[in-house]
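User: Show me a protein chain along with its predicted structure.
Assistant: Here is one chain, sequence first, then structure tokens.
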Amino acid sequence: MREILFVDDDSFILNGLRSLLRKQRETWEMSFVTSGSAALETLALRPRDIVVSDMRMPGMDGAELLYRVRELYPRTARIILSGQAGHDDLIRARPVAQQILCKPCERSVLCEAIDRLFKVQALLADERIHTLVGKLERLPLFPKSYLELSQAMAHPLPTMAEIVRVVERQPALSVMVLSIANAGYFGRAQAAVSIETAVKLLGVELLRALALSTDLFSQINEPLLESRTFMSLPQRSLLKAQLARSFVRDAALTEEAFEAALLMDIGYIVLGQSDPAGYLTLLNEAEKGQQPIQELERERFGFTHAEVSGYLLGVWGLPAPVVEVVVGHHLPELLGLAHNPVAAAIHTADVLVDALWSARSDPTAGIDACILNRPEVRARLPEWQIKAQAAASGLGWTGNL
């Protein structure tokens, strides 16, 4: 049975939560305490799967509590539930809260957020991944994102398209914006997979504050600057996203394909941050053509960047379909994604772009058989190759499809 700890200094609120969630008693074991100190005492007796805390509490507030939870119990997922938090509180809570929900919160929104965390924990049950991501403070953002955003906003009449383009070029900022927009903090019951929708929801000032805070406290580890793979990651991620969006015929799935492709390799950053020197050695070995990166990662860590990416996106509240295709983007058949059009699009875009970037002679050799054997993929693959070649040529790559 899954265990959840709720923390709020208002006993009336806690009683309301008990009543609101009474139907969940058969599947959730819930505890309720009225202070941060009481929460830490409870966790010391037995760690819980999830902590849901109010933000503004006397003494130890929610941000401080979740900071301590992150340090002491990194496998415990963390949610802020608050109806009074302003922008400053949101900036403080973002590094330690994996989801932020507004209060009062509809039962369906709260249950969906908690269930999503449970599903991700079950999907990626490796404790090493939980610990690695749980200890993560912020994703390193690639340089100048805040300056680019400020310049776009400084125009007399800045366009939404300009602002969205800045965000799309920064995978870590994209995750931050999407996670907040999808967390229910603004009272949305339906997930938003479009960066444009998320940016409109947040507003430009909050967006710039998020970019600034991320830039100031997120630094790329110096050894990783030597890696060609790592330094090309923003460019390759954006190209994969653009291609994946164009590969999907169903207009309702194009933004999902774009977001999944843009963010599917963000696990590189997490693994690099956890062990810069060791990961640089791994990347250098892969660049010499000895083994694919994901195979070397599994040998070294027991998991790959795809699983880390999926787990991180899941605990930050991105929709389950995005998480699933991200986790399976190297081996889609393992998660039953052989007939998923988004999985086919991002898998193929991933293989083609990396083949162009590496100048491999036979790019289609890396496409999984379960995707390659689909008639619609085979029919459109020549068109996709032409699109990839044209896009890569515009970047000055010398690979030849």
